[in-house]
Automatic annotation (TrEMBL), chain A:
It comes from the Bacteria. InterPro entries: Aromatic_CoA_ox/epox, Ferritin-like, Ferritin-like_SF, PaaA_PaaC, PaaC. Its EC number is 1.14.13.149. It comes from Streptomyces telluris. Keywords: Oxidoreductase. This is Phenylacetate-CoA oxygenase subunit PaaC. GO terms for cellular component: cytosol.
Automatic annotation (TrEMBL), chain B:
NCBIfam families: PA_CoA_Oxy1 (TIGR02156). This is 1,2-phenylacetyl-CoA epoxidase subunit A. The gene is paaA. It comes from the Bacteria. InterPro entries: Aromatic_CoA_ox/epox, Ferritin-like, Ferritin-like_SF, PaaA, PaaA_PaaC. PANTHER family: 1,2-PHENYLACETYL-COA EPOXIDASE, SUBUNIT A, PHENYLACETIC ACID DEGRADATION PROTEIN PAA. Its EC number is 1.14.13.149. The keyword Nucleus does not apply. Keywords: Oxidoreductase.
Length: 241, 321
């Protein structure tokens, strides 16, 4: 694939890293899901995201060089997607925040035309499914038992401060970021309320999370995740697999 | 099978049995509502459940490498494969449920050790090449075992196997291709591939079960057309298939006695270590505890999620999944 020029490359890297890192986190669930249907669903979502990551990274350069040979400080994913899985509710909270964002973002990108539009047009169908999955689980957990309600609330609360970063403008993307933020907030609020949960009240970003991932500043668990992901590839320089 | 019972109206077991035997002899399919001998039902439940459990436990050794897969292409292939295995488990639990048991009950039996899964999944995946060796050898052995099951006398099982075998053949080719890439790669990659084949070869041969002389269920399963070939026949078929494949992979099989026997038209091969097989089967393999504990933990830690889904469904009156 032909590599594109900055700033589109920077944008493709940000979106590609989001998809790559979240896919990796979901891959960690394999063999650990609470019910067999979720083994299938989580792997399915992980695969969709990995497919998106491969397309996006290939716009920038060699997908494997980019995935396996960059260090932590060179990754441009939002901090939200690198957050550890935690329990199932934490994972679902991350999925809810991210898939609603990704769905609205890709809808805008698909409509705007330009070089990212074809990819966004394809991905938006996958992401609509991811969003549906996350919303339904948010409802089941929020409006399920006392325990699941508490866990879901705690997942939403813990990840809330990582959501502001999603709306930091990414250069090269024809997106109305404030409209995106409004639409996201309204959609998430709707689901959270239907799930009998409370929208977290804290700030959506802090000194460390405002745009930090997009600038290559990550959280501690991320380096460990990359160590695992890259170890084998780095141990055999130049090998093909 | 076309008739649920003889049309004489007689309710004696002998007449049902005769009708059942005739249907099996005529290669008709037995379906869930048909009468069947209790022992036939029990054998099928045992076999299908064990098969389903194997798919589920079998996710673990491969999932062990998802987060470390060395290229994004390989990672996607491996994720898709592990996802397929969960899907196979689901088909098979459904097939078992047509016999009057439930998935929860079967999972309980797996978790408490009352039902088994394939002994092969008690071996560890120590390097990336093990993922290829599992695809080539373990899936290859599974396919050799399972293709005849597509003609099994019990309809739901046979139909599940048709779908499963298609996907398994695909996995097997991917495993072969993974090993080929390693074998033709750097010296270190080649050595990694050879080491994996050395460790997985004998356990794969054990997947066909004990020698015919010591296989307690075989004769009856063959009479009922659940099973079509003996353990030793299938094992021989597998060896004959693998030898030329190993050659084209540029890898050797770890058996000094392996050679072509012109007279038999088959490969002779060395003795299998049945003591090891029995040890692994009885819970003393390298990963038995680890595999079952992970499975139990996933189930126990997921209990609150399943309870939430059930409570939500009860409140809102719809299906949970």
């Amino acid at each position: 694939m032909t590599a594109v020029k900055a700033p589109l490359a920077a944008a493709a890297l940000a979106l590609g890293d989001d998809a790559l890192v979240l896919s990796h986190r979901l891959g960690e669930w394999a063999g650990h899901a609470p019910v067999l249907e979720e083994e299938v669903a989580l792997a399915n979502i992980a695969l969709d995201l990995l497919g998106q990551a491969r397309t996006l990274l290939s716009l920038v350069g060699d997908e494997d060089e980019l995935a396996y040979l960059r260090e932590e400080r060179a990754f441009r994913n939002a901090q939200l997607v690198e957050q550890p899985n935690g329990d199932f509710a934490r994972t679902i909270a991350r999925q809810l925040y991210f898939s609603v964002y990704q769905h609205l973002l890709y809808e805008q990108l698909a409509a705007a035309g330009g070089p990212v539009a074809p990819l966004a047009g394809k991905a938006v169908k996958e992401v609509a499914y991811h969003r549906d999955h996350a919303e339904h689980w948010t409802l089941r957990l929020g409006d399920g038992t006392q325990e699941s309600h508490a866990r879901m609330q705690s997942g939403l609360d813990a990840l809330w401060r990582f959501t502001g970063e999603l709306f930091e403008p990414v250069e090269g993307l024809p997106v109305d970021w404030s409209a995106l933020r409004e639409a996201w907030l309204s959609a998430v609020t709707g689901v959270v309320e239907r799930a009998t949960l409370t929208l977290p009240s804290g700030p959506q970003s802090g000194a460390w999370t405002a745009g930090a991932g997009r600038q290559g500043i990550h959280t501690e668990p991320f380096g460990r995740m990359l160590a695992e992901m890259q170890h084998l590839h780095r141990s055999h320089p130049g090998a093909s697999w | 099978m076309t008739t649920m019972a003889p049309d004489t109206g007689a309710r004696d077991t002998a007449a049902y049995e005769a009708a059942f035997d005739a249907a099996v002899a005529a290669e008709e399919r037995i379906e869930p509502r048909d009468w069947m001998p209790d022992a036939y039902r029990a054998t099928l439940v045992r076999q299908i459940a064990q098969h389903a459990h194997s798919e589920i436990i079998g996710m673990q050794p491969e999932a062990n490498w998802i987060t470390r897969a060395p290229s994004l292409r390989r990672k996607a292939i491996l994720m898709a494969k592990v996802q397929d295995e969960a899907g196979h488990g689901l088909y098979l639990y459904s097939a078992a449920e047509t016999l009057g048991t439930g998935r929860d009950e079967l999972l309980d039996k797996l978790h408490s050790g009352r039902q088994k899964y394939s002994s092969i999944f008690n071996y560890p995946t120590l390097t990336w090449a093990d993922v290829g060796a599992i695809g080539w050898l373990v899936d290859g052995a599974a396919i050799t075992n399972q293709v005849p099951l597509c003609r099994c006398s019990y309809g739901p099982y046979a139909r599940a196997m048709v779908r499963i075998c298609k996907e398994e053949s695909f996995h097997q080719r991917q495993g072969y291709e993974l090993l080929l890439a390693l074998s033709r790669g750097t010296e270190a990659q080649h050595a990694m591939a050879q080491d994996a084949v050395d460790r997985w070869w004998w356990p794969s041969l054990m997947m066909f079960g004990p020698p015919d002389a010591e296989s307690p269920h075989s004769a009856r399963s063959m009479a009922w057309k659940i099973k079509r070939h003996s353990n030793d026949e299938l094992r021989q078929r597998f060896v004959d298939i693998c030898v030329p494949q190993a050659e084209s992979l540029g890898l050797t099989l770890p058996d000094p006695d392996l050679r072509w026997n012109e007279e038999r038209g088959h490969h002779d091969f060395g003795p299998i270590d049945w003591t090891e097989f029995q040890e692994v089967l009885s819970g003393n393999g390298p990963c038995n505890d680890q595999r079952i504990n992970q499975r139990r933990r996933a189930h126990e830690e997921g209990a609150w999620v399943r309870e939430a889904a059930a409570a939500y469904a009860a409140k809102h009156g719809k299906a949970t999944a």
